[in-house]
């Protein structure tokens, strides 16, 4: 083989230098006259940004136009609009929820029950007779002026030719008369999965109210959704497009379910139609033998990796079934010793292999049990550099946060309490409810906090409502209003979904801030984020969203 010379002729060095300069000065797109929030402490603001290929070539002032105009790039005058790094939701069930997005109706923005029922009727009118109409989470009776949920009779009245399914978070579900018929609730063998309890009247007839838990509700709803793979693929693509329109450029899905749930996502990637960076974690699918499950699933897999548009971010969110407190709102959760032993096996395996994880803990009690296990693991394998996180932590105490800090854990906060305020207040003291979730306290303790929504069942996708909630501290319907000392600044709230989100996904060297040399993931906003009234933050949308240097969404005037 020919050896590569240790030195190059001066003329060749000069040519290489000139070539690199030419490449560096090339530009495909220049944004100027903007208000750019970089989230980079070294250079927090700018007015112009240059994109070359999939990278940010330069960021600074409008003089960049002169330097980078050699190859006639596209110029966009921002006219003072705000630019931010692309938003990343670090805890959203996008893969599952996206595949039913076109099927569902949403009520989170309705303030009157009459308007919610009208939206349901409109959805029914657009569907074939006998097809289910569904609202699956992300609403609250207290958000309506009427302060109540709909009745079975009202659901039957607005959609007499369709079965209707209305799920209130994971607390209960309602069906109309056609729904009672479709599920055969008054027969000897109702068509409902295990774990669903049918409420009956004094005569033994179904009232239309169904009780259950997370997995049983998910199984029940799965019976109603079209199984056509192309339908699910189109729905997922539509969902991702709408996320782009909010300025989202990435997400991490904590648990999408069985392997088949990921097929549509991988199909979009193969076909070159993926418009958002999709990170995912793998949940346990073998209750009672989770350690064996994870050892098998990780046998030929790196601890985490990023392929560009799809990344693997470890294991989560339900890691050991019996350690999961579901959507319990108050104290009293206990996990059996057998479950703790299983978590010790899983956590030890993950720590030894340096596999990142996120684990579900709604309550302080669940978090306490988990941390006791993690503290044992930490004696053998230090956890501080593994980027492990606790999710939710709605009623997390100062003691729990201190234990997390000591271990070097991070915290992924969601917007469950925005909807669950009444239930949290009922199950806990007013003091606990007023600090739920403990985002401010975690930040003040220098715990890395990244933001999620937990949509589509619990939260609102698109992130802006979550950011508004962090800034205002006001839960839906005004049930809980946090005090000023519990609120986040706008910059702090934005950091949860930009640079902190990038860190959780092991991408802080590539994304999360707008800096030269980083990948071009950004959004141009239609409203000024820093000055718009706080209670209008949820109305912000993107007019231009760029992922990896490619425009994936551009609003039409």
Secondary structure elements and pairings:
Elements lengths: L9 H16 L3 E4 L2 E3 L7 E2 L1 E5 L2 E6 L3 H4 L6 E4 L4 E4 L1 E3 L4 H5 L14 H13 L7 E4 L15 H7 L5 E5 L3 E4 L1 H6 L14 E4 L5 E6 L2 H9 L6 H17 L2 E6 L9 H8 L6 E6 L7 H8 L7 E2 L3 E6 L21 H17 L4 E4 L2 H15 L10 E4 L5 H10 L2 E4 L2 H12 L2 H4 L5 H6 L4 E3 L12 H9 L17 H7 L2 H6 L17 E4 L16 E6 L2 E5 L3
Parallel strand pairs: 1-6, 2-7, 8-14, 9-10, 14-15, 15-17, 18-19, 19-20, 20-21
Antiparallel strand pairs: 1-4, 2-3, 4-5, 7-22, 10-11, 11-13, 12-13, 16-17, 22-23, 23-24
Written account of the structure:
The protein is an alpha/beta fold. The protein is built from 19 helices and 24 strands. It has a six-stranded mixed β-sheet with strand order 3-2-7-22-23-24, with helices on one face. A five-stranded mixed β-sheet has the order 8-14-15-17-16. β4 and β5 form a beta hairpin. α10 runs parallel beside α11 and α12 runs parallel beside α13. It is globular.
